[in-house]
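In practice, a research group might receive sequence data for several interacting partners and want a quick structural hypothesis before committing to experiments. The following worked case mirrors that situation: the sequences arrive first, and a predicted assembly follows.
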Amino acid sequence: MLKILPADQIEDVLRKNIIGRLGCHADGETYVIPINFVYDDKGLYSYTLQGKKTAMMRKNPRVCFQTDDMGNGNWRSVIVQGVYVEVTEIVERHNALQLLSNRYLPFVSSVKSHLGANWPFHPGDENEIDGVVFRIDVLEKSGRFESFVYAPTFPG
Amino acid sequence: MLKILPADQIEDVLRKNIIGRLGCHADGETYVIPINFVYDDKGLYSYTLQGKKTAMMRKNPRVCFQTDDMGNGNWRSVIVQGVYVEVTEIVERHNALQLLSNRYLPFVSSVKSHLGANWPFHPGDENEIDGVVFRIDVLEKSGRFESFVYAPTFPG
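A structural hypothesis for the assembly, expressed as tokens:
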């Protein structure tokens, strides 16, 4: 049975993971998409290309974010209720891209492949026209975990 | 860059995976939760306990489901737009539980631990009072994939 995840574990899950799912809603449609992210004290940062999800979140910035992991026999899941904010201020935008870049380098063998050919880019590059940096400001965080008992399988 | 996932690959992703994320929306709130699932020709089946997500989906049955995997150097993601239907008819409910049970047995060492102490149960068990079997009827399926190039990492 799922149990409440303590606050320090919620922070740990948000800091240790790099992929989550973002849920947004506009015009009667709900949409769930996987996103890259990095968590810092201001919220979650992510980078994407303009498209359906950015259009939806511009219409309705109230979003839900979920991420989870498995470690030490515990499955841990965190849900964040938050607000989508597009980051256009040049210093914050640059810092967010640097945070994302630093966070992803140890995990993927080719960051360029993972995040698109124009990654990492620098403010002013013509390639960045379609790139959107956004922040999810946290309204509420909650978490659950489940401990797995590694017992032999017994059907029935 | 993300590319369109062919229809046969969409079916393959839905058949091969057992965990996805479900997005629902009610009263101005979007909610994303991980769920177990099994896919068959009628749609997706899942089992959960009554709670926030079932209350929300009873209010607004239009949902979005997402699942993804990584195989052969490709990251594949599928998004399903669908309708939540609670399964109460006894034969379909029993069959859905059997499908879920069969699907999970090879993956978890203790199904009882993973799905709760009352799993698997049989119709009529008093333990099943809080258990909800539901189906997501598919309105639309779409998929994307990305090929990873396993090249050495080069920062900057």
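Before designing any experiment, note the following. The CA atoms of residues 121 and 128 of chain A lie 7 Å apart. The interface with chain B takes residues 1, 21-25, 28-34, 62-66, 68, 77, 79, 81, 101, 105, 108-111, 113-114, 116-117, 120, 146-153, 155-156 of chain A (CB under 8 Å).
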